[in-house]
């Protein structure tokens, strides 16, 4: 329950408008991610949340995120590493690839659930 990657924490912050960034983001927002309330966040729940996050970030609704749209959640390095094609835009696929990789990294037990 302790460590979840910074991107997710920032997205949670962004999507919930919560003011406290520092401690245990995941714990505070677990209810929002854990939609079936079983005490763990599985891939589907995480994916659904991140799909919604993408929509929220895509302020001009053009189906891709530019650096300005992600300024609150990604620094320049993170943006560059998420923009796999290097065209200066993070497409939905690039975004989902990135966050699902983060999910896998955070899922240390390998059971495809964060808890
Ligand atoms: Ca769940
Ligand atoms: Ca956009
Ligand atoms: Ca791209």
UniProtKB/TrEMBL annotation:
Residue span, EF-hand domain: 45-80
Domain of life from the UniProt record: Bacteria
InterPro entries: EF-hand-dom_pair, EF_Hand_1_Ca_BS, EF_hand_dom
Key words, A-Z: Signal
UniProt cross-references to PROSITE patterns, sorted A to Z: EF_HAND_1 (PS00018), EF_HAND_2 (PS50222)
Signal peptide: 1-21
Protein name: Ca2+-binding EF-hand superfamily protein
């Amino acid at each position: 329950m302790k460590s979840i990657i910074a991107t997710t924490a920032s997205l949670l912050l962004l999507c919930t408008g919560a003011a406290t960034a520092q401690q245990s983001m995941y714990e505070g927002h677990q209810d929002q991610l854990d939609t079936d309330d079983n005490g763990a966040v599985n891939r589907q729940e995480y994916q659904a949340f991140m799909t919604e996050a993408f929509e929220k970030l895509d302020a001009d609704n053009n189906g891709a995120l530019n650096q300005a749209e992600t300024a609150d959640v990604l620094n320049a390095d993170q943006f560059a590493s998420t923009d796999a094609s290097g065209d200066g835009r993070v497409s939905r696929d690039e975004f989902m690839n990135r966050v699902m990789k983060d999910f896998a990294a955070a899922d240390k037990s390998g059971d495809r659930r964060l808890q």
